Structures are given as structure tokens and as C-alpha cells.
């Protein structure tokens, strides 16, 4: 039986704060949809000053706001984190996140590396940071070009940013390589189950919890060697 076929343990006391980060084009959105399908998880909708892309809905993919409205929220300390990326600002409102965690509901943030580091600095080990790694920068370029939504100059900026972000992967608790969608989804489910198990006394762990802990341990960022990082970046 796979991790995805085994019901997750009942959340203990407080929800998990799961922070997913990865370069633009790495496939975070598809991964998230498959990972969280059928789960009662709170997905935080970020605020952004950028314009909506075709098919994006306000309040679903992002809350699209003016630069002035964003700055007002930031000045009021209303974001758990906020960051600028390729000329636009992104922020995570704090109130709904704390409410969900307090009622035992897992929270998933999909944010930039800079924002993830802010969350880590603010809440410490409560933040479960997961870096989604592309198979290579060559593959990432292919995916970005396939979107047909970016200029060549913007793509080059995103790739340069991605190279810098990949070098920070060891700052995250886990690294998941998105070269096989089904496997990557299973790995995210294993991480979630393993972190749930950590909230319980070990005698209460199920066999599925123990299997998830073993699998998650193999995804720890310290197991992703510098040589593997160099393979991804082509250095």
C-alpha cells in the first residue's frame, strides 16, 4: 500500500505549517493540486501586485492588489512574510494561517525562497520547509519557454534567480525533485505523514507512519549532495 492510499493520522493539537518553495516553472502548482486532493488542508492565498495571467482567478490563485494596498498591509505587519520577485511583490496574510493552525488544520504556503526564509526566521522549527527541485536548469528552461507567457529576457532573469535559489536548498528541511510527478506527490505525502507522526509519542505511530518517517528521512536536504546540486545547475 502506498502512502497516498493510507489515511493520514488524525492531526494532534496543532496543524502543520508546510512551506513549499521552488523556481518558477518547476511545477509547484500541479504538485500541490495532486498532493492536497481530498485533504482538508488550508491553502494560503498570497497577495500579489502582479497582473493575473490568463485563467487565474482573484482570490483563488492569488489576491491581486494594487501596490498601495500591499504596502498598507505590510506597514500594518499583516504578512507572515513578503518579498519582491521580478518586479512584483508577494505576501502571505498571517491571520487566516494562525486560525487554521490553531484548529488543528494543516496549512500549505507556496512562496518564494526569500519569503520562506522569513517564515523560518519568524516561527523557527514549526515551519516545515520543502524545496521543489527541477531535474535540471535545462529542463526548467524548456518548461518556461513552453508556457509562452514570458519574454526571453524575463525567462533569463527567472533562470538566473533559479540558480541562486537552488544553491540555498540546504536551508530547507526537505528537497523533492520533480522529475516524476507521481513519485514527487508520494514523497510530499510521506513528508506530511512523517511530520504528523513527530507530534505523537512513538508508541502511537502506525506502520504507515514508520514507513513515511524512513522515506522522509531520505528526502532531508542534507542528503542532497553538492555534487547533485552541481548536476542540476550545470556547474
CATH topology, by name, is: Rossmann fold
CATH architecture: 3-Layer(aba) Sandwich
Tell me the strand order in the biggest sheet: 2-7-1-8-9
Unreliable segments (pLDDT under 50, ≥5 consecutive)? 1-7
SS-based structural class?
A: alpha/beta
Report the count of strand segments: 9
What is the CATH top level name? Alpha Beta
CA radius of gyration: 18 Å
CATH homology superfamily: P-loop containing nucleotide triphosphate hydrolases
How many distinct helices? 9
Provide the number of structural domains. 1
Please describe what this structure looks like.
The protein has 235 residues and is of the alpha/beta class. It has a single domain (3-44, 105-233), classed as Rossmann fold (3-Layer(aba) Sandwich). The chain contains 9 helices and 9 strands. It has helices at residues 28-36, 67-75, 95-102, 113-123, 137-147, 152-166, 181-197, 207-217, 226-233, and strands at residues 17-22, 42-43, 47-48, 63-64, 79-85, 88-93, 107-110, 127-133, 174-177. The strands form 2 sheets. The protein has a 5-stranded parallel sheet. Helix 7 crosses helix 8. It is globular and about 55 Å long.
Amino acid at each position: 500500500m502506498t502512502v497516498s492510499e493510507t489515511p493520514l493520522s488524525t492531526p494532534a493539537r496543532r496543524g502543520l505549517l508546510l512551506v513549499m518553495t521552488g523556481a518558477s516553472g518547476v511545477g509547484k502548482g500541479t504538485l500541490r493540486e495532486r498532493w492536497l486532493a481530498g485533504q482538508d488542508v488550508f491553502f494560503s492565498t498570497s497577495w500579489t501586485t502582479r497582473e493575473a495571467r490568463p485563467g487565474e482567478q482573484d482570490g483563488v490563485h492569488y489576491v491581486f492588489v494594487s501596490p498601495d494596498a500591499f504596502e498598507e498591509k505590510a506597514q500594518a505587519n499583516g504578512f507572515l512574510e513578503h518579498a519582491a520577485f521580478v518586479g512584483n511583490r508577494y505576501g502571505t496574510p498571517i491571520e487566516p494561517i494562525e486560525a487554521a493552525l490553531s484548529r488543528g488544520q494543516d496549512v500549505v504556503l507556496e512562496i518564494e525562497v526569500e519569503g520562506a526564509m522569513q517564515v523560518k526566521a519568524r516561527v523557527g522549527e514549526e515551519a516545515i520547509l520543502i524545496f521543489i527541485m527541477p531535474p535540471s536548469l535545462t529542463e526548467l528552461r524548456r518548461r518556461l519557454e513552453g508556457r509562452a507567457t514570458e519574454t526571453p529576457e524575463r525567462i533569463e532573469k527567472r533562470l538566473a534567480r533559479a540558480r541562486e535559489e537552488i544553491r540555498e536548498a540546504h536551508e530547507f528541511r526537505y528537497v523533492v525533485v520533480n522529475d516524476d510527478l507521481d513519485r514527487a506527490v508520494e514523497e510530499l505525502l510521506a513528508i506530511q505523514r512523517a511530520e504528523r507522526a513527530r507530534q505523537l509519542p512513538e508508541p502511537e505511530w502506525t506502520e504507515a507512519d514508520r514507513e513515511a518517517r524512513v522515506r522522509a528521512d531520505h528526502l532531508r536536504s542534507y542528503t542532497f549532495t553538492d555534487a547533485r546540486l552541481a548536476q542540476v545547475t550545470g556547474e
